[in-house]
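In this supplementary section we document a worked example of the pipeline. Step one takes a protein sequence of length 250 as its only input; no multiple sequence alignment statistics are reported here. Step two produces a three-dimensional model, which step three serialises into structure tokens for compact storage. The input and output of this example are shown verbatim.
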Amino acid sequence: MSDEGKLPDFIICGFQKAGTTTIMEVLNQSSNIELTPNITKSYVYGDEAHFFDLHWEKGIEWYKKIFNNNGKLQGDKTPDYIIEKGFIKKMYSVVPNAKLIVVMRNPVTRAYSAYNHYNTYYNEGHKEVADWGWVAGESFLDNVKSFEKNPLISNGIYVDQLKNLFEFYPKDKVHIVVGEQMYKNGQEVFRGIFKFLRSEYQVLPFNVAHNKKEYKEQMDDESRKLLTEFYKPHNEILFKLLGYEIKEWS
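The serialised model returned by step three reads:
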């Protein structure tokens, strides 16, 4: 690692539980791409830097040291950056020319995945996750009924967060990945990512099951119905913003 480090060339800035870890693991196999190579890995946050949301006070020099100045493309994968406009503003103030990758999946299934993700940490004794705004220890349905007050649900209103992102970054700096398409046509999706990053395409091992967990219980019908109805108008506005419909969510 160079003593100076450098700022990242690209950031996977959203969304949590949509497939960001899969993209990170695949890109890290590339011979000319690295993601947060010098990060101190933690149990809860893994390889995520969380500079613009949790570690801003550590300063830009701390952030730069997470990356190598070795000629390889350097990336940061922290999907929480997109959830608040203030984080996006900080990100733009430091890396206005960075390329951004945004991963989205059906917000209904994303919410259930996030609920199980939080519960896993909570049940393993990491009680600090109870401060993340969800109804800790309660059923998924109880969380669903709180709707927009609950980040499990509000984080799936992608259109609001994308609008915030586009206030700072032009659309040609943002590459959208649909999680369902990635798991169905992985190499095609990654070809698009390499093209966006202007990196030579490499056929890399792609594990569909990476970071994918089996749940003890499936989502209940009432929760699925409530969430489908809740997200429908938001998704319609999202499709207009994107200029296309995501058929996999129908």
